[in-house]
Each structure stands twice: as structure tokens, then as C-alpha cells.
Design a protein that fits this description.
The chain contains 13 helices and 14 strands. It is mainly α and 429 residues long. The chain has a domain of 182 residues: Glycosyltransferase, CATH 1.50.10. The strands form five sheets. A three-stranded antiparallel β-sheet has the order 1-2-3. A three-stranded antiparallel β-sheet has the order 6-7-8. It has a three-stranded antiparallel β-sheet with strand order 9-10-11. Helix 4 runs antiparallel to helix 5, helix 6 runs antiparallel to helix 7 and helix 9 runs antiparallel to helix 10. The protein is globular, with a radius of gyration of 20 Å. The N and C termini lie close together (9 Å).
Length: 429
């Protein structure tokens, strides 16, 4: 890191802290609590107004709000507002999302908490583990860990593929695998196994149970053995149950199937730069929690970071493209909020591991693009989607899949890494 880069990072740091504490957190505290029925409201238009026509509550965003309010309670403990927001979200979630006949968490309920979809999707179960474990880590309330461990046990009973490794991902209310095709009972994916890595890391941090550590290490092994291309270094997408690659499809109960502004790509399989860089920092965090050396992973991490630098970064305008070829340029060049946020953390994590200075340049470009085009500074939250030039395509600030998780988590994780990087003398690198 040269002196110019250090000065730039030092200038960005307070802007991000201000954005998190005076923008993102107040936005969701003021709007996101459902004071009438409990849980959280997540659908807000470009002016921050609640969309009363879209009030269903998904497991993904309810748990992400529990996770976010739990972490925010640590950042702003003086008022207790975030802790209260997390606690009421936990109460609603346990009362309304738990499916008592077969166990596990529902996919979706209506605003009042009446069941709409009892499907058991491991993506959703993983976020339940993640949020519940973090709730205990942040508040000390043991209920979160108790429910997280209970959910983990159900995944081992019903979802672990003990013959081939990894986990079945899409299951029906009674935990039987879903049909093939759109319900995707015959598929495994990088996305869901990466979020199991995230969930098991939080669970092990809260429990320190050996079984949780072992399953975390197994998921990491599955990801590197089967789901990362050893040639290009990028993440792959979808597989059959034997981890043979399949052409990716839109899958029921996923963001890809429901997102606004989706662009179909005809041709070869692609990779997500946002997922790849998110994987980098999630792995870094897992190693830190386990107290495990990352030495064995560094060659793969270096490849993944270099792939993003070569193809995923818009060096002219800033920001991170959405999807691209495994060995070739970006083919979906618009810029979505979550990929920008996760990429920013991943770029800094990769720099901490490799010391490659171009990663800092890419981070600064990503932040400046988001600061100019994606962040609604008047209201404090991120817009959903822009094109490659920064023209806003989807201005909404919240939807059934978008809450405080990507924006709030990323700004918090960026600050942690900026603090470490700026406090480390260059001679120590």
C-alpha cells in the first residue's frame, strides 16, 4: 500500500462509518419494525415509503433483520433500540415461522404470521442458524443458540448427503427432496453451501461445539473440492447430487427467480463476481473463528481475487459487474447492490491475505461508484440496481429479499478491515 492509497482509505473510512450509523441503521430502525404484528417490514419504494401491497414475510429477510439488529445492538448499545428490535423479531420468528409437525422453519408467512409456504429450503434454514447464533453472540440471550443448534441437528438428520457429501438443498415440508427441475430437488449449488459456511461459522463461534466445527470444515472442503474451478479460480454454479456440473437454471424460492431487472444470459455457464468475493471474506472469517491457518487456501484465494480484478471490476467507471464467463469478460454488466457490498469486503479481505495493491484500487472504485449512484444519501439505504454507467434501473430501497443484511453487514465488515489495514505499518506486511 503506497501513501496515496493509505490517504484514500483514511478518507473513505469516516464516510462509511457515517453512512452505517447515520444512514443504514436509522433507516431500518425507523421503518423496518412491524409494530402491529411483530417481525419486520422490508418493502420500501425509492422514497422510503412502505409498500402496503407487498407485506408477506420471508424467512430470508426476517432472519437477516434479526441478524442485523443483533449486530447493530453491539455498535449502538447506548439506547437499547436495536436490541429491542432484535428481540421482538426473534419472538415473532419463533412463534410464527416454526413448523411444529415436522420441525424446521417455514419459507414464508403473511404479515400477521399465517403460513403461506412450509417448504424446507436449506438456504432459509441456514439463515435461521446464522441469525439465531448471532443473536446469542450479540445479546447473551441463550434462546438464539438453542434454536440454532436445534436447526443444525435437523439439517444433519434430513439434509446431509452422507453418501456424496454436501447437503440436499430444496425439500418439501416433510423434509422429502423436492421434484427435479424448477423445484430443484436434484441440484446442489455454490450459493447455498456458501451460506452454510456462513451459518456454521456463526454457530461454532456461539457454541464452540466440536460437531459444529467439524461440519464447518466439511462444508469448506466441499466448496473447494467440487464448487470452485481450479483453472480459472472462480466459483461454479449448479451441480447434480454427485457434483457434476449442470447448466444453471432459475430455481423456485430464489432471488434469481424473483428479482426485478433480471437479464437472461444465453450461452455458457457464468460466475458471479459478488459471490466469489463474498466467499473470500467468509472463508477469512471462518478461519479466524476456528483459529485455523489459511495457508492451504491462499493459492485458490489469489486466483479468485485475480479473476475478479481481471474481469469483474469496471476500471473505467467503478463498481463490480454482476456475472461473467469463467475465462472471459463480464456478460451481465449491470451493478446490483448486494454484489457491490459483498465485493467491497472481499477485496479488502483478499488484500489482507495477499497484499496485492490493485485490490485496494478496486475497493476504492467500488465504493465511489456506490456512493455516487447506489446509495440514497437522503434516506440512508442502497438502491437495488443500476446499469454499468450508474443509471438507476430499480430504485427501491427494500423488497422481500432486500433488508439491512448486505448493506449493513458489508459496511460494518469494511470498517473492521479498514481499521486493521490502516493500523498496520507497511513495514509489517
Amino acid at each position: 500500500m503506497n501513501s496515496q492509497q493509505r490517504q484514500l482509505l483514511a478518507a473513505i473510512q469516516p464516510r462509511i462509518e457515517r453512512h452505517l450509523k447515520q444512514g443504514i441503521i436509522p433507516f431500518w430502525l425507523e421503518r423496518g419494525i412491524d409494530h402491529e404484528f411483530g417481525g419486520y417490514l422490508t418493502c420500501f419504494d425509492a422514497q422510503g415509503r412502505f409498500d402496503s401491497s407487498d407485506t408477506d414475510k420471508y424467512i430470508v429477510t426476517q432472519t437477516r433483520m434479526i441478524w442485523g439488529m443483533s449486530v447493530f445492538a453491539e455498535l449502538l448499545p447506548e439506547t437499547g433500540a436495536c436490541r429491542r428490535a432484535a428481540e421482538q423479531g426473534l419472538d415473532f420468528f419463533i412463534d410464527r415461522f416454526w413448523e411444529p409437525e415436522h420441525g424446521g422453519w417455514r419459507w414464508k408467512v403473511d404479515r400477521q404470521g399465517r403460513p403461506l409456504d412450509d417448504g424446507k429450503v436449506v438456504y432459509g434454514q441456514s439463515f435461521a442458524i446464522y441469525a439465531l447464533a448471532q443473536y446469542t453472540l450479540s445479546t447473551g440471550d441463550p434462546r438464539g443458540l438453542e434454536w440454532a443448534a436445534r436447526t443444525f441437528d435437523l439439517l444433519q438428520k434430513y439434509c446431509a448427503d452422507t453418501a456424496r457429501g454436501g447437503y440436499y438443498e430444496n425439500l418439501e415440508p416433510d423434509w422429502t427432496p423436492s421434484a427435479p427441475g424448477f423445484p430443484a430437488g436434484e441440484r446442489k449449488s455454490l450459493d447455498i453451501h456458501m451460506h452454510l459456511l456462513e451459518a456454521f461459522t456463526a454457530l461454532y463461534a456461539a457454541s464452540r461445539a466440536e460437531i459444529h466445527r467439524r461440519r464447518l470444515e466439511e462444508v469448506i472442503d466441499v466448496l473447494f473440492t467440487h464448487m470452485v474451478d481450479p483453472v480459472s479460480g472462480c466459483g461454479l454454479n449448479q451441480f447434480d447430487l454427485h457434483f457434476r456440473r449442470l447448466p444453471p437454471i432459475a430455481i423456485r424460492r430464489t432471488w434469481n427467480a424473483e428479482r426485478e431487472g433480471e437479464l437472461a444470459v444465453n450461452g455458457p455457464d457464468t460466475t458471479s463476481y459478488g459471490h466469489n468475493l463474498e466467499f473470500v471474506w467468509l472463508l477469512q472469517h471462518a478461519c479466524q473463528v476456528m483459529g485455523k491457518s489459511a495457508e492451504a487456501y491462499l493459492p485458490a484465494i489469489r486466483k479468485m481475487a485475480c479473476h475478479a480484478l481481471e474481469y469483474g471490476v469496471d476500471w473505467q467507471r467503478g463498481g463490480i459487474y454482476r456475472d461473467g464467463l469463467h475465462q472471459g469478460p463480464a456478460v451481465v454488466r449491470d451493478k446490483e447492490w448486494w454484489q457491490q457490498t459483498e465485493s467491497m469486503v472481499g477485496l479488502l479481505a483478499a488484500y489482507e491475505w495477499t497484499g496485492e495493491p490493485r485490490l485496494l484500487d478496486a475497493f476504492a472504485l467500488a465504493w465511489e461508484f456506490a456512493d455516487r449512484h447506489l446509495i440514497n444519501h437522503e434516506l440512508g439505504e442502497w438502491r437495488t440496481l443500476a446499469d454499468e454507467t450508474g443509471r438507476v434501473l430499480v430504485p427501491e430501497l427494500g423488497n422481500p429479499w432486500k433488508a439491512c443484511y448486505h448493506s449493513g453487514r458489508a459496511m460494518n465488515e469494511v470498517l473492521k478491515r479498514l481499521n486493521r489495514i490502516l493500523s498496520t505499518p507497511e513495514s509489517a506486511r
